[in-house]
TrEMBL record:
<feature type="active site" description="Acyl-thioester intermediate">
    <location>
        <position position="91"/>
    </location>
</feature>
<dbReference type="InterPro" id="IPR020616">
    <property type="entry name" value="Thiolase_N"/>
</dbReference>
<comment type="similarity">
    <text>Belongs to the thiolase-like superfamily. Thiolase family.</text>
</comment>
<dbReference type="InterPro" id="IPR050521">
    <property type="entry name" value="3-ketoacyl-CoA_Thiolase"/>
</dbReference>
<dbReference type="InterPro" id="IPR016039">
    <property type="entry name" value="Thiolase-like"/>
</dbReference>
<feature type="active site" description="Proton acceptor">
    <location>
        <position position="408"/>
    </location>
</feature>
<dbReference type="InterPro" id="IPR020617">
    <property type="entry name" value="Thiolase_C"/>
</dbReference>
<dbReference type="Pfam" id="PF00108">
    <property type="entry name" value="Thiolase_N"/>
</dbReference>
<protein>
    <submittedName>
        <fullName>Acetyl-CoA C-acetyltransferase</fullName>
    </submittedName>
</protein>
<keyword id="KW-0808">Transferase</keyword>
<feature type="active site" description="Proton acceptor">
    <location>
        <position position="378"/>
    </location>
</feature>
<feature type="domain" description="Thiolase N-terminal">
    <location>
        <begin position="7"/>
        <end position="271"/>
    </location>
</feature>
<dbReference type="InterPro" id="IPR002155">
    <property type="entry name" value="Thiolase"/>
</dbReference>
<dbReference type="GO" id="GO:0016747">
    <property type="term" value="F:acyltransferase activity, transferring groups other than amino-acyl groups"/>
</dbReference>
<feature type="domain" description="Thiolase C-terminal">
    <location>
        <begin position="279"/>
        <end position="420"/>
    </location>
</feature>
<dbReference type="Pfam" id="PF02803">
    <property type="entry name" value="Thiolase_C"/>
</dbReference>
<keyword id="KW-0012">Acyltransferase</keyword>
Length: 424
């Protein structure tokens, strides 16, 4: 096998994220992913190009979208001979898609590719009531009209009540927010610390829009040019007035909202980028996934990044402090704070991570410097692409350094990565 090659992040594109039942209420996953991909195609002049692969996914998907990414690619300006397929790793989907594309480029299997993600909280795939579904399957197998008619008396009015997808863990029946509230209580994360993080997220994202940072990362769509959830005027005082919705400390202000949106990121080998004259913003250097046993163990559902990051640091020969940017997905403010607290905690680091000294504290001024999911919103599978593009551009602007990306995901999963500056 060939020596791994360096993988460049060329750039990203996303549509502004919209609140559930907002302006994208009638847009399907395919519509939104098409918009994100076509924006990227336009930005990097990719029309008619055959890419190595497009990898994307959605957490909430209709059964008709059996290969959503391929169907979407067929409707974009990319050459239809571009292979494309879906993956799903809950909120880690977008980052995992980027890791898959990056690994194939690193191994010389492809030269360039797009990673993406999309999710709708508005266009929910309602499923037939299980009893009705079984009856319809039996009906379908019936060989004669009389057999079909004989089945009709089995139909009950209750069969018409659909099964609506819940934002809950199948194994526990608890929502993400309920799980996160347990973690917030276990780690004694205060309400005021959560509100402070949420206010900073809004203020920083608003400032990033104002200074034009997102001009080449976000393409207007269906009347939105900025993320609809963004409230530049969010203050700790205002957030402190909101009622808790999960546990005692978590509110609509320090939790991500249910969101619609899509994102895409273009990755290429150094050689391909040079041949096309495309500047590289940053290089993908390391990645790691982890999972926690939140069903039988005492772990918080969203704590897997607390394990993935130290393993990745050990392989990379880095400490937690060796970064200029920390992009930690804000599923809930409490989740970010619990993860940071775990890395500072001698007992957690010793007992769970096997480390004699804790990973330690990070410089908080480097955390989510342009805001994150609390302000932008969180269309599950699209968040990874938003974060990779943001981190790469931050490194390009700085002209040096390194960014840590950490994304917690449903199912007790965590996906993490390191980007390095492309400047020499
Ligand atoms: C999925 C994975 O794999 C991993 C993960 O990321 S886990 C995270 C997954 N995401 C989730 O679970 C989403 C969780 N969020 C939710 O379920 C819902 O958004 C929620 C229950 C928290 C809130 O829902 P809601 O009540 O409809 O919110 P919303 O109406 O917008 O806000 C409630 C109030 O707070 C106010 N508010 C919200 N944010 C505010 C802010 N930043 N500043 C001031 N006020 C704010 C609103 O104005 C509203 O006030 P009124 O009642 O006076 O109108």
């Amino acid at each position: 096998m060939a020596e791994p090659r360096r993988v460049g992040v060329i750039g990203g594109n996303r549509i502004p994220f919209a609140r559930q039942f907002g302006p994208y209420a009638r847009a399907s996953n395919q519509d939104m992913l098409t918009a994100a991909l076509d924006g990227l195609v336009a930005r990097y002049d990719l029309a008619g190009q055959v890419l190595g692969e497009v990898v994307a996914g959605a957490v909430i998907k209709h059964s008709r979208d059996f290969n959503l990414t391929r169907e979407t690619v067929l409707g974009t300006a990319l050459d239809p001979r571009t292979p494309a397929y879906d993956i799903q790793q809950a909120c880690g989907t977008g980052l995992e898609a980027a890791i898959l594309v990056a690994n194939k480029i690193a191994l010389g299997q492809i030269e360039w590719g797009i990673a993406g993600g999309v999710d709708t909280a508005s266009d929910a795939p309602l499923v037939l009531n299980e009893k009705f579904r079984q009856l319809l399957l039996t009906f379908n197998r019936a060989k004669s009209t009389s057999q079909r008619l004989a089945l009709l008396p089995r139909l009950r009015p209750g069969f018409l009540v659909p099964e609506i997808p819940r934002n809950a863990e199948p194994r526990t029946g608890m929502s993400m927010g309920e799980h996160a509230a347990l973690t917030a209580a276990a780690w004694e994360i205060s309400r005021s610390d959560q509100d402070e993080l949420a206010a900073a997220s809004h203020q920083r994202l608003a400032a990033a829009y104002d200074r034009g940072f997102l001009d080449d990362l976000v393409t207007p769509y269906l009347g939105l040019s900025r993320d609809q959830n963004l409230r530049p005027g969010s203050t700790v005082e205002k957030l402190a007035t909101l009622k808790p919705v999960f546990g005692d400390t978590m509110t609509a202000g320090n939790s991500t909202p249910l969101t619609d949106g899509a994102s895409a990121v273009l990755l290429a080998s150094e050689e391909k980028a040079a041949a096309l004259g495309l500047p590289v913003l940053a290089y993908f250097s390391h990645c790691e996934t982890a999972a926690v046993d939140f069903v039988h163990g005492d772990e918080g559902l969203l704590m897997a990044p607390a394990y993935a990051v130290p393993r990745m640091l050990a392989r990379a020969g880095l400490t937690l402090q060796d970064f200029d940017f920390y992009e930690v997905h804000e599923a809930f403010a409490s989740q970010v704070l619990a993860t940071l607290k775990a890395w500072e905690d001698p007992a957690f680091c010793k007992e769970k991570l096997g480390l004699d000294t804790p990973l330690g504290a990070i410089d908080r001024s480097k955390l989510n410097v342009n805001g994150s999911s609390l302000a932008a919103g969180h269309p599950f599978a699209a968040t990874g692409g938003r974060i990779v593009a943001t981190a790469a551009k931050l490194l390009a602007e700085r002209g040096s350094g390194r960014a840590l990306i950490s994304i917690c995901a449903a199912g007790g999963l965590g996906v993490t990565a390191i980007l390095e500056s492309a400047a020499r």
